Amino acid sequence: MTTKTIGVRALVALLLITGCKKAGGFGGFPPTQVTIVTAQRNAVPETYQFPGAVLPYRRVEVRSRVDGIITAREFDEGQIVQPGQVLYQIDTVRYAAAYHSAEARLATAKSSFNRVEPLLAQHAVAEQDVDNARSSLAAAQAAYDQAKKDYDDTQIKAEIEGRVGRTNLEVGARVTGSGDLLTTIDRIDPVYISFRPSSSQLLDWQRHASSRSLTRAGSALEVQAVLPDGSTLPRTGRLDFVAPSLDAATGTQEFRATFQNPDHLLMPGQFVQVRLLGFTRDSAIAVPQRAVQTGLGRQFVYVVGAGDTVHAKDIVPGPWSGDQWIISSGLNPGDRVIVDGVQKVFPGRTVVPKPLADSASVPGKDR
After folding, report:
1. Which partner for 52 in 80, 195, 305, 354 could form a disulfide, CB atoms 3.0-4.6 Å apart?
2. CA dihedral defined by 7, 10, 14, 20, rounded to 10 degrees?
């Protein structure tokens, strides 16, 4: 590097320093304008979110009451079936023969009983003969009923309306009886969504009477479902079941909500996010979410103090409430929290605070 180059650089540095001094030094830059909210205590709507699983409203296992070879499958896997709709046909030869044989024996027993019964009044037959004929008729009737039922059961029908699942046995397979699961039918309108708050969350709810009443089956609690693509189901569900005890393995308690599902957007086995609406935290401090900063393993906000000087305050944030973040600790009523302009400030700098005019920043205004 030449002596001339060094001299030029030194001159440039000298000019920069001189310019800064004329402007009041490095701290002489004009104050940055920021928008603030003043922390205050309000009743803030509180929203909770948990992972949930979609369950069928009812699931029926389809099994055969008789054994035999499957001769037909009358449904497509995954289709909606109606009560009484035939799903499988079992070979009827053996059962049809037994049915017709029982029908013939029943006709004979009826004829014999009808012939001897009138003779009893004329003392033309012994009473024992009439009793025997009556017993034979009853036995024939029972055998007929069983044979007819077995014959009818060769047609395996749907018991409920719902979506039929995958078949486990196909045409030509042998069914050995009720031990063989053929398929299942799920009722999917309505459906259940199950979710499990933790024991610590349950304890927090139990400490507040308003929250405690909302966590009972049949309460006014609104339950939203957030679908896997991030969209919200356009209808809410209602809490209909709360398990009487905690799951010892997970330390959670099962809650279940019922959702109408005419468009089948919810499918059994699907995972969704469950959002609970209706809780309120009294006397809470909340600030817009964008005011909360994270760095070096801590969370903090910038606060405008005396002389409009910025300083950082460590906070412990709680749950979200719409676009607000409830602050569990670290802020006091009257603190002026910077919402917009945080990227231009640092502790010790003087700013020009301006109240945030956005109505969404008012605690409790937005869910």
Report:
1. 195
2. 140
Among the ranges given (184-188, 276-280, 359-363), the one the predictor scored with the smallest mean pLDDT: 359-363
Give the strand pairing for 32-38 and 351-355. Answer: parallel
* Angle at alpha carbon of residue 118, lines to 117 and 119, rounded to 5°: 90
Fold exhibited by the domain 61-187: OB fold (Dihydrolipoamide Acetyltransferase, E2P) (2.40.50)
Tokens of 68: 């035999």
From CA 66, how far away is CA 181, in angstroms rounded? 13
User: pLDDT tier at 358 (50, 70, 90 boundaries)?
Assistant: low
Report whether pLDDT(9) > 80: no
Q: Contact 96/180 with Cβ under 8 angstroms?
A: no
Take residue 208 and report the two structure tokens written for it. Answer: 């507040």
pTM, rounded to two decimals: 0.69
Class of the CATH-defined domain 26-44+283-361: mainly beta
* CATH architecture of the domain covering 47-56+190-280: Beta Barrel (2.40)
- Alpha-carbon distance of 268 to 291, in angstroms, equals 40
Alpha-carbon torsion, ordered 340, 343, 349, 354, to 10 deg? -10
